[in-house]
């Protein structure tokens, strides 16, 4: 796949994630996106430290490396996506659960278009971080898929105000 095609697909995924978070009711409390980050470094935390080097109050936890990353990511996403759907009284209704499963499926489907067969063996990390700034605290979960063939990470980022 050509790099500009890859970038287009990541932008589409990012827009989808952002739109889903807007449906979650707390538009000022939640944020989600996806992006590509080019790097020669395969150390996930080091990559994030470089990305957030201007932020002085960021603490990263140790990365979680997962072999069966698609199942892991799908389970995590099903808990993150639509955690408080706008205009819905109970998040335990079958309609919300079905919508959450569908949205998770769509995200995984879009990722499969980005990561074709040559990246199946790529490494996967989840890294959690806390960002403290101006009296506010934000929890961030990064899902990082290392695309070793092109020296990039596909990063899904989910932020929530604490």
What features would you describe in this structure?
It is a single chain. The protein has 162 residues and is an alpha+beta fold. The chain has a single domain (3-161), classed as 3-Layer(aba) Sandwich (Protein Transport Mog1p, Chain A). The chain has helices at 3-22, 44-51, 69-80, 94-114, and strands spanning 30-38, 58-60, 64-65, 124-133, 136-147, 152-161. Strands 1, 2, 3, 4, 5 and 6 form a 6-stranded antiparallel sheet that branches. The radius of gyration is 16 Å and the shape is globular.
Q: Using the alpha-carbon principal axes, give the shape.
A: globular
Count of discrete domains: 1
| Main sheet summary | 6 strands, antiparallel
**Secondary-structure arrangement, i.e. CATH architecture:** 3-Layer(aba) Sandwich
Number of extended strands: 6
- The share of residues in helices is 25-40%
| Order of helix and strand elements from N to C terminus | HEHEEHHEEE
